[in-house]
Amino acid sequence: QVQLDESGGGLVQAGNSLRLSCAASGRTDNHYSVGWFRQVPGEEREFVAAISWNSFHTYVVDSVKGRFTISRDNTKNTVYLQMNSLKPEDTAVYFCAADFQRGGLILVRHIDEYGVWGQGTQVTVSS
Asked: Which residues, in sequence order, are CB contacts of 25 under 8 Å at separation 6+?
């Protein structure tokens, strides 16, 4: 059974940085893509970024482009979301998710295409 565990969230002032980690356990290979999503209470979960298994393909949404970077270290079974120049509107619970259906090379952005989810980590950005 694959499990994802997010960490690295917290309370920061606007303009500062955080690095979120998504550690995978229970799987012996890394041929899966990973996405990051975020959710504010009362709103739908929003796609933020994704990365292929070999890091050749990455994608971040326009609202965070230039501020957020997704990366992974397969030797540690961990995917990162580096968040710089944080804004109050980045406040949300951040989730990572894994897609095991497409060989890890195709990036997808819809919730239903991800089969395993972490429990989420809270990011709060104060103004």
From this structure: 2, 3, 5, 77
All residue ranges of the chain with pLDDT < 50 are none
- Rg of the chain on CA atoms, in Å: 14
Pick from 100, 70, 90, 92: which is nearest to 4 by CA?
100
In this structure, the number of other CB atoms found within 10 A of the CB of residue 59 comes to: 17
Instruction: Tell me if residue 98 falls in helix, strand or coil.
Output: strand
The residues that bridge with 39 in the sheet, in sequence order, are 93
| DSSP 8-state symbol, 56 | S
Contact 20, 7 (CB under 8 A): yes
Contact of 124 with 91, CB cutoff 8 Å: yes
- Six-digit token pair at 47? 């796609």
Instruction: State the CB neighbour count (10 A cutoff) for residue 44.
Output: 9
- How many C-beta neighbours within 10 Å does residue 125 have? 20
Query: What is the rounded CA–CA span in Å between residue 41 and residue 96?
Result: 17
Instruction: Give the integer Cα–Cα distance in Å for 90 and 69.
Output: 14
